[in-house]
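User: Could you go from structure to sequence for me? I need the amino acid at each position, not a summary. Structure tokens:
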């Protein structure tokens, strides 16, 4: 049986993101573009290994007028850090593929938009939101890829895919 799992990361500011072990390396924070300073591998080869519980340093800030989140949650970065030289090497190897990532995310989402819409996006508070008719039906694999590309699903409230990465540079 081959190895299965994913890695979770924190940047200096305590933003969290993750990637599947077989996906491209993601050394930079999708929220602030800072380098990762902490990483943890979650091995799921033999069932689900649970993630370490991260302590919240600061809950996601909310907009005063509409109470929607306007930024990511910040976590306390645990003591054991990634070696800086590892991070530097990964950043050097990484290409600046912002537009490619953006187009890839939109291409994935286009596959879940059978109804179509003249204005499928909305921008507020540094968040780009993309509305597609079957946004909730995205496969686990596509959802993972969208996460890596900088999009998260808002299923509680607006039923849309949203991105800080592409809402604020
Ligand atoms: Zn960050």
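Assistant: Here is the amino acid at each position, in order:
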């Amino acid at each position: 049986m081959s190895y299965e799992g994913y890695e979770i990361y924190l940047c200096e500011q305590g933003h969290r993101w993750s990637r599947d072990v077989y996906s491209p390396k993601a050394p930079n924070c999708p929220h602030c573009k800072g380098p990762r300073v902490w990483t943890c591998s979650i091995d799921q080869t033999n069932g689900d290994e649970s993630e370490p519980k991260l302590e919240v340093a600061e809950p996601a800030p909310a907009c005063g007028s509409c109470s929607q989140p306007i930024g990511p949650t910040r976590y306390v970065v645990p003591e054991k850090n990634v070696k800086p030289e590892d991070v530097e090497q990964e950043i050097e190897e990484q290409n600046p593929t912002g537009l490619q990532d953006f187009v890839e995310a939109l291409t994935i989402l286009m596959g879940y938009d059978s109804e179509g819409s003249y204005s499928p996006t909305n921008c507020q508070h540094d968040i780009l939101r993309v509305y597609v008719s079957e946004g909730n039906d995205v496969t686990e694999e596509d959802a993972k890829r969208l996460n890596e590309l900088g999009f998260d699903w808002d299923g509680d409230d607006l039923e849309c895919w949203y991105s800080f990465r592409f809402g604020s540079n």
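One structural detail worth keeping in mind: The chain has a mean pLDDT of 84.
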